[in-house]
Amino acid sequence: MPHAKPRQIVIDTDPGIDDAIGILLALASPEFSIRGMTTVAGNIGLETTTRNASRLLAFAGQEDIPVLVGAAAPLSRPGPEPLNLHGKDGIGGVDLLDPVRQPENQSAVEWLADLLLSVPASTVDVLALGPLTNIARLILEKPAAAKRIGRIIAMGGVIHEAGNVGPRSEFNLWADPEAAAVVVPSGLPLVLVPLDVTRRVRATREFAQALRAAGKPLATMVADLIESYFETKTHQESRPLHDPCVMLFALAPELFRLEDLRLTVNTGSSEEAGALTIDEKGKLVQVAMGVEGPAVLDLLAAKLTAI
Ligand code: BDR
Ligand code: CA
Fold it and tell me: What is the pTM of this model?
């Protein structure tokens, strides 16, 4: 059977250990043609997330993919403190060389708008792994370009469970609730992948060992990343692979269960900031609410060990 044409994607990201795993999965997947990576402050400051994006491309030998510098701070509030879950360098101190190629001079939003206007409408998807600041700015500043996005698949939010930074708040939406409150009701095709699903896709130390045993460079790097992810949580038996779920959904939507939910975003300054509420006044959004955890882990391992 002939292979389908690769889907064009842009990865918007704040690497981040789990971002890094998602990026390496995308780089290992011929189903994607990665047009560029746009960076955002989140897990750690913008300079570091940008450098990490470039270092990952250099490691994978794919520095032909451009890196575009995005937002250093949320739309209208001070940036969050680094989470301390991802180490001083944001990606757990794994051994990555400095990149050769520098980030482009154009801003992430300008570049994204030019890209979207230069290709047929609906042919580029945005895979969003961090706070939604860049995408919100695109919608606000370049609405005609934003309308041409095929689909936004975003790791963010929590629906029925406890949050990871507030009682009902997940980090990416909490870090820039005003941006989330632009993107969620925008009417653009959006799939949210919340903690309710990403907490069910968990890497154990054994999973990391199996990746390492394959003796392949990307799989070994992901094993290092997973092991570093345990460093701040030594008592845990497994760690959630939040951001890779975005790529896994794009690769194998049949392994996820989607629900159409009307959602609003809390933009208060309380600990509820970024919280999602199911509300009949909210905009209809597709939300991944179920996942076949073992099957998506098998897919992740298969992709990383194939090259
Ligand atoms: C999200 O927050 C970040 O720490 C992770 O990279 C992920 O994008 C999970 O809440
Ligand atoms: Ca992230």
Answer: 0.97
